[in-house]
Structure formats: structure tokens, C-alpha cells
Amino acid sequence: MVFETNRHITTREIGERLDVSKSTIHEHLMELGFVERLDVWVPHKLSERNLMDPVSVCDSLLKRNENEPFPKRMVTGDEKWIVYNDVERKRSWSYPATATLTMLRFHNDNERVIAARPFQTSAVSDGLQKLALACDKPETTALVS
């Protein structure tokens, strides 16, 4: 039988070899008791060897665990920090010389708090200083009131 050598063969390939349509090949395979599973034709009823495979695998895994227990094979490593940067930007009115501030959220990682606070660029610092100087002048206060 063709399936003895190659279980991955398609009905189209068998049909081309035998000069028969693929639907005819499919019907005959179904009559013989074959089922297509993940592109592999397997007998619907398992043989003695196929029934014993899971038992032998379980037996070998059990013996392997007796010789070398699983926790001893487990590899543990150092913590890995993953920085979570969730930037929240808010709109606000400002002078052209000042830059916008960025608000950052707090993030807990491995029971520790990772926090980032907003920073001021030099343009913001300069703008705030100019604003403070302008507020100290008496003529500016007269315009405001």
C-alpha cells in the first residue's frame, strides 16, 4: 500500500499515480477505515504498537523523574526588570517659549514601586523665570488689575 512508505501523501498525488480522480481515492480510503488527521492518513483502529506508545512514554518519564527529580533540573535566573512607560499627556495653554510637561504614571513591578516624575527642560525653566520677573514689576501688576 502507498501509505506504508509515506503517510503524508495526498489523495491528489495518489490519483495522479493511478490515473484516477482524487474523490475516488478519498472514497476508497474511507471504506478501508482510514481517517485524515492533520495531513496524515492514519488507520481508524490503532495497532498494538500504537496503543503501547503512550504507555512506554509515560514509563520512561516516570523513570527519568526517579533518576533526576524535576525541581533539580529547573533553571532559575535573576529577576528581569521590564520598564513600563505609560506616558499620559495633557493639553494645557502655555507661552511659546515654554515646553509642555509630561505626566508619568506610577507602576508596581515585583512588589516595588517604579516611579518616574516629570522633568522640566531648560525652556520651561527659562519661561518660568521670565514669568516670575514679569510679575514682580509694578507696571505689569497695574495692567492686570
Protein model, in words:
By secondary structure, the protein is α+β, with helices and mostly antiparallel strands. The chain has two domains: 1-45, no CATH class; 56-145, no CATH class. Helices cover 44% and strands 12% of the residues. It has six helices and six strands. It has helices spanning 11-18, 22-31, 48-67, 70-73, 122-136, 138-144; strands at residues 34-37, 40-43, 87-88, 103-104, 107-109, 112-114. The strands form three sheets. It has a two-stranded antiparallel ribbon with strand order 1-2. It has a two-stranded antiparallel sheet with strand order 3-4. Helix 1 crosses helix 2. It is elongated and about 95 Å long.
Count the E strands. 6
Count of helical segments?
A: 6
Distance between the termini: 102 Å
Strand content: 5-15%
Order of helices and strands: HHEEHHEEEEHH
What fraction, in percent, of the residue positions are helical?
Answer: 40-55%
Class by alpha and beta content: alpha+beta
Which value, in Å, is the CA radius of gyration?
Answer: 37 Å
The largest sheet is: 2 strands, antiparallel
Defining key terms:
2 domains; DNA topoisomerase binding; about 45% helix; two-stranded antiparallel ribbon; histone H3K36 methyltransferase activity; about 140 residues; alpha+beta
Itemize the secondary structure elements and their pairings.
Blueprint: H1 11-18, H2 22-31, E1 34-37, E2 40-43, H3 48-67, H4 70-73, E3 87-88, E4 103-104, E5 107-109, E6 112-114, H5 122-136, H6 138-144
Helix pairs in contact: 1-2
